Amino acid sequence: MSVSFSLKAFVAAGLLATAGLAMSHGDVTPQEVDTGDLPDLGKEALTENPFRKGNEHGDKHAEAVKVGKSGYAGNCAVCHGIEAMSGGLTPDLRELTEWDDEYFIGRVMNGTGRGMPSFKDNLDQTAIWAIKTYIESVPQPE
């Protein structure tokens, strides 16, 4: 067995392992989110974050950030990184300024078809909007 063949086999194995990591994005077991004292937002998807200051439930903003932080840690961090800081394989959620609220809720509820699963059967809308509120509270990258 030549050194060249061994090196090629090693490189091929490394590339295959890296591809496996990239393909595993979204292979997450959703974790239940305790929404505490936040109001039940129902099943009909809202098109605007109700917990943002100045919105209908803006008075619950601080509670939503707390609930969202826990929900993010259990459902999003494995792919999108601790405190929404991506390691590079998935979008850095702090930088997705082009994602308006309606787009966000659609992506989370329905998945992407490219690795991100649908969470509509596992997270209620209250939990999803709390997670969005938490993401918005994380400082932007410098």
UniProtKB/TrEMBL annotation:
Domain Cytochrome c: 63-139
Keywords for this protein: Electron transport, Heme, Iron, Metal-binding, Signal, Transport
Span list, region Disordered: 30-58
Signal peptide interval: 1-24
SUPFAM superfamilies according to UniProt: Cytochrome c
InterPro entries to which the protein is assigned, alphabetical: c550_proteobact, Cyt_c-like_dom, Cyt_c-like_dom_sf, Cytochrome_c550/c551-like
Superkingdom, natural source: Bacteria
Comp. bias (Basic and acidic residues): 40-58
PANTHER family (alphabetical): CYTOCHROME C-553-LIKE, MENAQUINOL-CYTOCHROME C REDUCTASE CYTOCHROME B_C SUBUNIT
Protein name per UniProt: Cytochrome c-550 PedF
Organism: Marinobacter azerbaijanicus
